[in-house]
Amino acid sequence: MRLHGEDAATTSGGATQDVTTESLTLLEKAALLTGKTVWETRDLPRHGVRSLWLADGPHGVRKQLGAADHLGIAASQPATCFPTAAAVANTWDVTLAERIGAALGAEAAAQGVDVLLGPGLNIKRSPLGGRNFEYFSEDPLLAGRLAAGYVRGIQAQGVAACPKHYAVNSQELRRMVSDSVVDERTLREIYLSAFGIVVTEARPRSIMSSYNLVNGVYAHEDPFLLGTVLREEWGFDGAVISDWGGSNDVVAAVAAGGTLEMPAAGLDSARQIVDAVRAGRIAQADVDARAAEVLRLVADARRAPAPEVDPLEQHALAREVAARSAVLLKNDDGLLPLAPATRVAVVGDFARAPRYQGAGSSAVNPTRLDSVLDVISRSGLEMTAFAAGFRRDGTPDAALRAEAVEAARGADVTLLFLGLDEIAESEGLDRSTLALHAAQVEVLRAVAEVNPRTVVVLAGGGVVEVPWLASAQALVHGFLAGQAGAGGLLDVLTGVVNPSGHLAETVPVTLADTPTAGTFPAQGRTAEYREGLYVGYRYYATAGVPVAFPFGYGLSYTTFAHSGLTATADAATVTVTNTGPVAGADVVQVYVSRVSPGVHRPARTLAGFARVELEPGESATVTVPLGDAAFRHWDVATGAWQVERGTWRVLAGAHVDDLPLSAEVEVPGTVPPRTEDLPERYRTGDIRDVPDADFSALLGRPLPSSAWSRPLTVNDPLSAMAGARSPLARLAYRVLAWRRDVADRRGKPDLNILFLLNMPFRAIGKMTNGMVDAATVDGIVRIVNGRFLSGVAATVRAFLRNRRANRRTARELAGDAPGRSA
After folding, report:
1. Domain 558-674 carries which CATH code?
2. E strand intervals along 464-583
3. Domain boundaries, the chain
4. N or C: which end of the chain has fewer CB within 10 A?
5. pLDDT tens digits for 357-410?
6. How much is the pTM?
7. CATH 3.40.50.1100 fits 316-505, yes or no
């Protein structure tokens, strides 16, 4: 097949046809840049350009059946639900991540999906992040390498991966209008680095932009993010796809490097692009470049029918991943693994109705779902009794607690399954606490009093406070373990699998200890990243704040010794020996710390890691590459990555707070050490209460206003109707809030209501398949601001005008009228 400027596309029948942007009219090119339906790109039948099908897929394919929506409300085709990214990250296993990606890609291909929307790799700025279950880590190196494994695996199956959400997308509250205010060094080193690793190592064919603004500019239309960094510095040449409803100004997006507006915003967007070219507000070359990116995505899509996948093999892989993702956090007196025929009482509602995935757009309709009660009979354990123990929503129930105590009294060991309920974490809302429901903790303490041999198995997409830890003789965190998680966790509990998970995020002692405890989620228009570089372990290690379990921590049924560290500026070499009685896997972690003076930086940062599997008594020597990436910082003064020359310390060990091996190296660097005119708190890590003046100094500019506008604008969230001038708007808000609260009381989030409350008015024009255009939205906002009569008149006129325009544009695209060519 001959490609013209890499613009070729395939016909719907699988044959190929040369298509160039030169062969398309301006209107046709513009039409390619907005979706056709909720999940399909626009086709151009007379040119043989087929539509592509996109589907959610961070941990399982979610191809919807029948009525489509983007929130996971309508039914979807059955697919394997793998453990979520928060679980898989604990494996620190890039090879396993690639296997998972290949399984996801194969299943997507079999279902006719062309673009799989995932993986998610945003940094876990706070453990309260409502969508943290979809993300890997608080560390960009770990997140980036695992996500790159997913992308390679997905794309090896002929399906385009779409890593997300680019960038600085940290909170769910008002995520579509929130402005992430962050200094450039923090932006580069923490929030962009993982995406840079994915793009340069795995070459994804698409990437999804985030809803939020970054330093005052919407991510999908930010020339700095999309042009300077993504395309120029990293060499990305694929399609940038907006998050669903995340497009603000389609013309600005095209000029900046935003390719595809999703879902179906209608033909008004195409007309806006055409009119902007004719008026000279945007270069036709930009439209051509974006259209070529869509055509290239079509050309690269799989053409031959994909083979069916074996659901049993997929389920077996999901079970393997669940077992390898589990983290053994406590194991006093070697209670685990449990010997065959151990008499166990199974307690906890999660044992019969597992929490295996999060809520929202990533929700998968699993091909099957195992519970502990389903599979324990095949584990070799003898279950003496089951007791629900507690109500899932946290409502106290003395009878259930008493039943659990009686069950525990008659067993050798109690397996107590605790966790976060469905309303605790979801797309569209952030967590309000790190605590388990008090009712669950009461059951634990009551059960442990009659049977100290109690094992707690946690389920949840993130970390929880553990003030109750003394009541558990052993603790396993399974995170959200997917459809086969029950079997995988029992494999760990019985020793079929030796646990090898290591925490990809810190477990703080209390929420108050976290660096953003007083500011997350941000309530105003701006989310100010006042903590700078000090995210996760970077903060705790620098500020000397004790934690419950440190980053990288994880126990095993065997023991490992690290020795013989040698290091240069290019690599570190460590010998690992299995000194215990059984085979197991260890993760060697290498960190760096600067000895010489220089710019502010965390006390230590992860520079590399290696997973190694060893038989008892076996040793292996592993080499972890370092290089400039381990020592560099973003130098704002020169606008470039720099390495300060001088002495650095390379540290190796089991986790960030256990690094017994140390070697000093002289790094030639690119610049001499220098001092900064910054507040001392950014050197010491004392960043929990940063005053305006200090954050302004870090930013290098005055702080933007965080106040909401009055009157309301198209970019204000619907939740702002609470203070609108119009009584009808205030009533509409109260109805939405009432429905949200009803869902909360029922213990299951109403995703549609959460989306509506968080979304800006402009999204009405982006989510209605062309029924509503920008002018109609302007009329609606006029009504909300108390100008009822003029607003209604403007809304009706705009609505009718848009309908007529859509019919004309549709005829032009079909070739029934003269095209609006350039």
Report:
1. 2.60.40.10
2. 474-477, 507-508, 526-528, 547-549, 560-567, 571-578
3. 316-505, 558-674, 718-813
4. N
5. 998 888 999 999 999 999 999 999 999 999 999 999 999 999 999 999 999 998
6. 0.94
7. no
